[in-house]
Design a protein that fits this description.
Length: 220
């Protein structure tokens, strides 16, 4: 070991070596001597310093070897963390895209709702008008039915029987019946109501020949 004129350059390293206190004291003077000026004691001090340095090198080598497994484990964990981070970034991007799509769908749904509300609002007058027409038709139909039923009961009150009256018509076997009326029994009486009042069916009456089927009483 040759240090030269600057033994203080290795002083920080010497403090980390495991050596006797006597060796630490002696090395300060030994290291300042030229190799040609060193004696046997000086060489012994130099040899001990070499052994201390060699031991420190071996210690550091063992330490690095023992830390290799930990370094590899840390590297593996770092790789896993990087992969997890990349996956999280991809998931975040996917969530962002889904959020944008959901917002767009929400806008479209809101627009469709406005259109539907406008359509309902525009349809309400038409619905009201149709409802009014329906109610008027139902009322007219009910009035017609009430009149027909009332006429039927009035004919029954006069003692007119349907089978005898039908066969008493001289013009035809079956009296004229408007096709748009639905109650056959009521219509059979109302069709010949005028004839029935002038010629009561008592076995001798007959159908008048001076009026047609349209002379019947109109129930409206």
């Amino acid at each position: 070991m040759v240090v030269g004129k600057k033994p203080h350059a290795i002083q920080p390293l010497l403090t980390k070596l495991s050596m006797d206190e006597s060796l630490k004291t002696a090395q300060q003077s030994v290291l300042t001597k030229k190799p040609t000026e060193r004696g046997g004691f000086d060489m012994t001090v130099i040899d001990e310093l070499d052994k201390c340095f060699e031991a420190k090198v071996q210690e550091l080598a063992h330490f690095l070897e023992s830390e290799k497994g930990q370094r590899e484990a840390k590297a593996a964990h770092a790789a896993e963390d990087a992969a997890a981070r990349d996956a999280a970034e991809l998931q975040q991007q996917d969530c962002s895209n889904r959020l944008l799509e959901a917002k767009q769908a929400q806008k479209e749904a809101a627009a469709a709702l406005k259109e539907a509300e406008a359509a309902v609002e525009n349809f309400e007058p038409t619905l009201k008008a149709a409802t009014a027409v329906r109610d008027a038709n139902q009322q007219e139909l009910q009035i017609f039915l009430d009149g027909a039923v009332a006429c039927f009961h009035q004919l029954k009150a006069h003692g007119i029987q349907l089978p005898t009256f039908l066969h008493s018509c001289g013009e035809r076997e079956t009296p004229w019946i408007p096709w748009w009326w639905g109650n056959l029994e009521v219509h059979a009486f109302t069709a010949c109501y005028k004839c029935a009042r002038q010629y009561p069916v008592n076995g001798q009456g007959h159908h008048r020949r001076d009026h047609g089927p349209r002379d019947g009483v109109q129930l409206v």
